[in-house]
Design goal:
The protein has 156 residues and is α+β, with helices and mostly antiparallel strands. The longest helix is centred in the C-terminal third of the chain and has 18 residues.
Length: 156
Amino acid sequence: MTAWILQARPEIFDSEAYLGRLKVGAKGTWLVTGTGKGMMAHHRAYFWRSGGDGLVAVGCLTGRAFPEQISADQMPDWTAEGKRRVAGRPRYWVPYRIEFTLPSRTISRDVCRRDPILSQQRPIAPVHVGSSFAVSKQAEERFEELIKELARRAKP
């Protein structure tokens, strides 16, 4: 399976509001870096909030990236800067569905930076600008281990 990190950057997107509303089964589209080449249905999607927060939800892509031009009024969770950068310009978007949110809401950037495998994964280190990043097989396996560990700790 191929996996992707879909990153929300707070300077262009109100990720707190958007990611805070994500529920299991929610569907949407995500702005991708470039054309989203290689992104396909059934690929794993890790939703990442840039800054210190880190991984907050996991889902899957439900189709290929596609070009679309949207207007500012179609972007309720975007900042003024984000709308200025994106609205009215053709961009690529990928459809997704949320499979679960993390019990504690996050696997932090600090946890990932201390991990010998995840510390090599973009955008964890070094800091990268972009909204979508391919995930190495080793990083995907490590994310899954951390998610299972969080789920075990969350059970009463």
